[in-house]
Design a protein that fits this description.
InterPro entries: MDR_fam (IPR045010)
Protein name: Alcohol dehydrogenase superfamily, zinc-type
Strand order of the largest sheet: 1-2
Shape: flat
Organism: Parasponia andersonii (Sponia andersonii)
Number of helices: 3
Largest sheet: 2 strands, parallel
Number of strands: 2
Radius of gyration: 19 Å
GO molecular function: oxidoreductase activity, acting on the CH-CH group of donors, NAD or NADP as acceptor
């Protein structure tokens, strides 16, 4: 706890309503990307039970882009 006090950590959050003035622009841009198929998803699919710990650790690193899936075939 003292490390946090000495290093002066700042935690800041936001409320969605604080950015409602951007909502219409977001909606129009998203609809346009969906219509032109320029919006793509990024998925990383692992297929074994042993990969679960590594996938979980990857959630907290800069490699976390898109959706991480562990597909278990039973």
């Amino acid at each position: 706890m003292l490390k946090i006090v000495y290093k002066k950590i700042t935690i800041r959050g936001f409320l969605v309503k604080d950015f409602m003035n951007f909502f219409l622009d977001l909606l129009l841009t998203t609809v346009n990307h969906l219509r032109t198929s320029t919006l793509h998803t990024v998925e990383e699919i692992s297929t074994c039970l042993e990969s679960i710990p590594q996938v979980f650790i990857g959630l907290f690193h800069s490699s976390n882009v898109g959706k991480k899936i562990v597909k278990l075939i039973i």
